[in-house]
Amino acid sequence: MLRYALKRLASLIVSLAVASVVIFLVVEVAPGDPASFMLGINARPDTVAALRAELGLDASPLQRYLAWVGGMLTGDFGTSYTYRTPVSEMIGDRLWISLPLAIYALTLSTLIAFPAGILAASRRGSPRDIGVMAATQLGVAIPNFWFAMLLVLLFAINLRWFSAGGFPGWDNPFQAMKALTLPAIALALPQAAILARVMRSALIDILSEDFIRTARAKGLTRGQALRRHGLRNALIPVLTIIGLQFSFLLAGAIIIEQVFFLPGLGRLIFQSITQRDLIVVESVVMLLVFAVILVNFLVDLAYAAVDPRLRTRA
Amino acid sequence: MTRPLSSGRTHPLDPEGAPPLLDISGLTVTIHDKTILDAISLQIAAGEIVALTGESGSGKSITAFATMGLLPSVAKATGRISLDGEDLLSQPESRLCALRGNAMGMIFQEPMTALNPVQTIGAQVMETILIHADATRAAGEDARPPIRAEERAREVLDRVGLPQDRFPLSRYPHELSGGQRQRVVIAMAIALRPALLIADEPTTALDVTTQAQILDLLGELVREDGMALMMITHDLAVVSDMADRIAVMRKGEIVEQGPTATLFAQMRHPYTRALFEASRHKADLGQTRPENTLLRVEGVSRDYALPRTKLFAPRAHFRAVDRVSFDIRRGERVGLVGESGCGKSTLTRAILGLEAVAEGRITLDGEPVFTEGHPNLAVRRKMQVVFQDPYGSFNPRHRVDRLITEPFHLLPDPPKGAARTQAIADALTAVGLQPGDAGKYIHAFSGGQRQRIAIARALIIRPELIVFDEAVSALDVRVRAQILDLMAQLSRDYGLTYLFISHDLSVVRSITDRVLVMRAGRIVEQGVTTEVFDTPAHAYTRALVAAAPTLPEEGAS
To answer: Fewest 10 Å CB contacts: which of A31, A85, B120, B155?
Structure first.
């Protein structure tokens, strides 16, 4: 198990190094001068020259790359050109919304999807199964921003249980979680629909395996065989999807952030791209890549925890 | 290899005495109005071994599943199955759950997939005990002293020959071989000492020596614990040694049943006789005409890299084939036998030029089969292969004509138009099919017909050597006999050379002139087939021959 974890960790570090080089090349070394690009075509030459100096573009690419990576390792992400504030602070503020929101949404989606998937798979072809499949079909099809607006209409405007948007900060954790609840539901619904379908089909595959028949011959009921022998074996494909969904939720929540006026990471990327604030773009993209790779690493560890065969194979 | 249960020991059912433990009468099973089992009746007494035999689709397994109450939900069962006086068909599911694993246990055919891969063997054996302990407690009928699950699991694993020091409860299924996994499945089935044990082809997927050990173990359990054993097998030879009585099934009916010795001596039903004759069928190979060498294998070795045990240690290697040398002369039919993992498949791939070898040379007609990292096409044209699985080895979306003309890509100038049609018709006719079959899809054919098509595919470019890789292992005995006859006839008619790879000694005996015995990557013995099997020189060959189940001589009682 330790060997497996070390191997995965080594692969994580290599992936990060490669990703950093690619991002650096794309943003900084690709044809075109970042400074003039950031300032737009009408900028005065001396402004461009000043920005070039400020960005350290005079140095060689290798020196700039090392300075960038070294800075990130010590927590210095540079200074935003647009806002004149340290990028690390900007990301930090946003992360405190996006990360809890992603975790919240993922928890909800898992809590909905697991029972739904199990329910559908345990009686395949039954009215329960058909009902769950129809609901998930709908869940996948409904655009989440539209669903978000329905939620606002119902719970914020009519019932007045929640506020329609905005974020009060973490001073009062209850209020903060309350503000994140509607966005989390809106994000969780389509994810839950996908996850429930994956869970169902993985379980149906597993339930036709020989060892389920063996378990039944031992005297387990259908439900016991499913819970004791089916679930853990069905987890591998489900974990894969959960990993992908988390990465998506972290950065892909931009539309929902717009609907609920949440200052999250998605909005930050969008704003920095429109304002050509390349330092911010570069750092946020790197951060997201880091998050995705880290999540994959955790999913790999979870695989090994679930399936003993992976521990020895490595 | 001793077989403690000889056919001399019988447990004739005593009509006057105690009722049989399992009493099936007039059992009929239908699925969507199709009759799968037609009013069968069968009794098994405690301490008795009753074999259920017949070809695939005869209803053997359905009988077992009906008894266990594990029929698919679309199946309807009528009649009576009584276990110890209790009618199983009228019991609710909860009662059946309490009986399964407790009063009746079951062992399955495929040990590789019968265990949950993510649970330890200890947990899986203990589950049988715990699930019934829970159920008893819940029902408030806790009369028996509680069984210590872990202790009993250990005890029962020891009992099936998996001792503590090598097989602690913490082992996972993937760390065990097929035979060892089958022992775990048996341990799970007998953990609560059920009165009835059902074994559905328990040794079909195993090597002969492993098969003999598992059969010994089952016989021992019956003798010592007084269990009743329903043994399902397609192989008459497997049960001829151990069963007290045999029931022969065909198309959902029991056509004949009786004490083993009587059944073999009389064989009243023609179907029984046909099965028996097909099992010991000997194909007519005609005269061997020893000619010049066709295939030459010289000092061939093949290594596989093993996973690293330490992060930076050099990789260890496993030598799958170890300095193997042999010749096959033109027109010879040569068998290659050995158990799984002995290197047969690796050697086959090397002969077909699919893989490079670490050392040595393989030549066909003097030309190397593998050159510069590729199979040598000029040589590949002269040899073809027929695989085991008649279901998986065809693309279901292609018609037969396209399937069997696949080897044409090996030819520099493949026939076209009328010549192609003629070649297809010739190949199909040669294997006993109609030229008109060319336009059909593969799903329209039975297993035996598919294997004929596989042979037609091999034959169509008129190769000199055909490699048969377990080519008849998946077939029922009567179909197998027909295919073996076809192979023999083709070899006579076209002067074909065969390399016949199989773990089944009786098949190799019936279709080959010469045999090579392989073990742990080496050829340990070779010679004329009848001589090697009748007077084996090497200890391993002797063990193989002794372990292989045999049918009694005809007419012997």
So the answer is: A31
